[in-house]
Amino acid sequence: MKTGTKLPDVTFRTRVRDDSIEGPNPFRWEDKSTADYFAGKRVILFSLPGAFTPTCSTYQLPGFENNFGEFQAQGIDEIYCLSVNDSFVMNQWAKAQGIENVKVIPDGSGEFTRKMGMLVHKDNLGFGPRSWRYAAIINDGVVEAWFEEPGLMDNCPDDPYGESSPETLLAHLTQAVAAE
Question: Which residues form a coiled coil (predicted)?
C-alpha cells in the first residue's frame, strides 16, 4: 500500500449491541462497508496479528486508546483497530481491554487484509492467515501516510513493532502540523 492509494471496498460482518434483544448476548449482525468506516473522515487505521496477543494487548491497542485526545488534537476523527479475527473475538477483546475510544473492525475472512497486500501466514504460531502489523492515516478512504513494520513475510520468526506504534504516528502528525 502506498500513499495516495484508495482503500479496497469490502463488507465487514460486525456484531452491534441491540438493546431490544434480551438475554446474555444482546447483539445483532450488521454489515459495514469500507465507506461506512472511512468516507468523509480522517482516521487512523492500525492492523495487528491478533486480538488478545501480547504486543497488541500490552502496547499497540492501549497506546492508541490512551492517546486518543492527542490524535484528535492533530485532526484525527476516529481510530480503528483491524485484525483477522471475527466480530465476537474483536468485541470481547475491546471489552476486556476497557476500550472506549478506539473502534474495532473484524476482518474475519481476511478479505480486506488480503486486498491491502498485508495477509501473511503465521502457521509457525498456530494462527493461520493473519495481518502483518501496519498503521495508516486515511483521509476520506485514501491513504495519506503509511507505516509498515519491516520484514513482511510468511511465518516471520519474530514480531516487529515500532513503525506502526501510536508514538510513531503521533510524531508524524505533530511534525506535519509544525511544518505547516
Answer: none
